[in-house]
Amino acid sequence: MTLSLDINPEDPRWGDLEPLARPALETALRHLGHDPALFEISILACDDTRIQALNAQFRARNTPTNVLSWPAWDLSPEIPGDSPEPPEPGTPDDPEPLGDIALSWDTCQREATEQHKTAPDHVTHLLVHSLLHLLGYDHETEEDAVLMEKTEVTVLALLGIADPYEDDTGLPLGVARVD
Fold first, then answer.
1. Domain harbouring 16, CATH code
2. How far apart are CA 13 and CA 25, in angstroms?
3. Residue 79 lies in a domain
4. Per-residue b/e over 106-125, b at no fewer than 16 CB within 10 Å?
5. Domain region containing 71
6. Is the pTM of this model over 0.70?
7. What tens digit of pLDDT does each residue of 150-179 get?
């Protein structure tokens, strides 16, 4: 059995997002020790106009963004850098909702181009990143960011995707090589 995935392709430019989303989300869940068949995730595949409205409504930021997440449960740890609480699983016949994800085609494509990444690799990273938010991971503190990024990089490596936090020099983004 597989993850219960409800994709609303509001913007037709997304095409069929499932072949990209399913392996990303299921690999992340399995890596974290969860059976994907026991969970459900909803994805809104939209454009900048829609995600800007959602960002303004839910985060008071009237600007487009690449991805938004709405966790069904607060699984965040009490101590920065600790792993989140595991979600309560459902059953294959009644999977437990983890939450909702919204992705903007326009911002994802623009960022992929600016960062010299393929759009599928960038969107895969954002799906993994967003799933981790649904599971209680965050990047509000340095300790939390290190844990979240390490988990993202590991999952992406399992999918054959390079570390998104390194540039083409092999250094983390924002770090210059000193000769």
1. 3.40.390.30
2. 21
3. yes
4. bbbbbbbeeeebeeebbbbb
5. 4-158
6. yes
7. 999 999 999 999 999 886 544 444 333 333
